[in-house]
Amino acid sequence: MLRFAFQRLISLTLSLIVASVVIFAVVEVIPGDPASYMLGLNVAEDTVAALREELGLNVSPFERYFTWITGMLVGDFGTSYTYRVPVAELIGDRLWISLPLTIYALVLSTLIAFPAGIIAAAKRGGAGDIGVMGFTQLGVAIPNFWFAMLLVIVFAINLRWFSAGGFPGWDEGFWLSVKSLTLPAIALALPQASILARVMRSSLLDTLDEDFIRTARAKGLSRRQALWRHALRNALIPVLTIIGLQFSFLMAGAIIIENVFFLPGLGRLIFQGITQRDLIVVESVVMILIFAVILVTFLVDLAYAWVDPRLRRR
Question: What is the rounded CA–CA span in Å between residue 105 and residue 23?
């Protein structure tokens, strides 16, 4: 198990290095000079040159990349061009909104999808299966930003159960903060729950057709007993894959949802960094998101080996 984890860790570290190079290269080729953007039109060239030197933009791209990547290794992401504060401070403040929102949405997605997928597989071809599949098809088809606006109209404007947007801060109370994240989390969770439920159903049905399930049924187990005792754990491998992928989808989808609900998270920070040409912020935030995705992928790989002992023996 330790050798398996070490091999996966090396592979994911190499992926992180390649990702940092790609991110830096893509952001660098975006047209427009941050110094010129910050100073506006009709500014003297020497003023622009002085600001470029202050921001460290007058050195070669290789030097900027090396400074950026070595700084990240010790927790120094540089200084924001626009806010003039350390990027690590900006990310730390926004992460305490985006990360709970993503986890909240992932938990909701899993809690909805697992029972729905199991019910659909257990009632294959019946009314329960048809109903679940119909709702999941609807969930996949509805864009999450449109669903978010619908939630605001119904639960914030008409019923007044939730606020239409904003975040009070964790120091104002845990439940008040969780309540402000509920509508955004539901808007993020619905499409992912629909996908996960369909994958859960498909994986369970494939597992129920295996020989060992037929053997268990021949020994006297009912279909429900065979599903819960034997099929469910063996069907979790593709489901774990989707859950790992959903984490990255939810983090990326939060960029739109955070703007709909005016949440000061990483999504809005990226959006503001792009519009303001704050390249160091964009690079660092995207790198943090990729690191989170790679870390979750690593944990999913370990979960594979825990669920299926055959992977450990390989």
Answer: 27
